[in-house]
Amino acid sequence: MIYHKKIKAFTLTEIMIVMVITAIVVGLAMSILSIIQKQSNALQQLYFTNNKVVLLNQELTLYFHRFHHITWNESEGLLDFKTPIDQKQIDLSESADIHSLIKEKYFYLEGEEVASGAIDAVKLVVNVKEKEQVLFVYKRKDVATLLNNGD
């Protein structure tokens, strides 16, 4: 008498059902991964934009307190900072990296708005993620500034 031993295995139908369920799960995982990557990229872009604004504010504050002569050159879009031993410039022209964020620029000398020349304060309105933010930096009048300007 010949006995046929039955081999335990999955049927073709069971394997096909498992493969279909696996494909659905992988598809959902890929779509969720895509959404997470988009959100991550948006957050990273927002971080870099905010970082640019914060660094510009810090740089302006540092230069306004460190340098005696500050001038705005409207034609070149440059803020010039000078002392007898040092000179720095900040480019706010249309070719500058930060220009895309700046919505409005105002420059002041002794409380009056000026178009070009010597300044002692600057107000920049920047756009960060559809939200306006105002940067206002001013120069404190110290003895050296008063003596150098002849006030």
Summarize the structure.
The chain is of the alpha+beta class. The protein has one domain.
Task: List strands and helices in order, with pairings.
Blueprint: H1 12-66, E1 69-73, E2 78-82, E3 87-91, E4 102-109, E5 112-114, E6 117-118, E7 121-128, E8 131-138, H2 143-149
Antiparallel strand pairs: 1-2, 1-6, 2-3, 4-5, 4-7, 7-8
Instruction: Report the major sheet.
Output: 4 strands, antiparallel
Order of helices and strands: HEEEEEEEEH
**Could you tell me the mean pLDDT?**
88
Care to count the β-strands? 8
Query: How many structural domains are formed by the residues?
Result: 1
Structural notes for this entry:
The chain is built from 2 helices and 8 strands, in the order αββββββββα. With 151 residues, it is an alpha+beta fold. The chain has one domain (12-149). It has a 4-stranded antiparallel beta sheet, with helices on one face. A hairpin with a 4-residue loop joins β2 and β3. It is rod-shaped and about 120 Å long.
Question: Which features would summarize this protein structure in a list?
Answer:
alpha+beta; 4-stranded antiparallel beta sheet; 2 helices; 29% strand; 151 residues
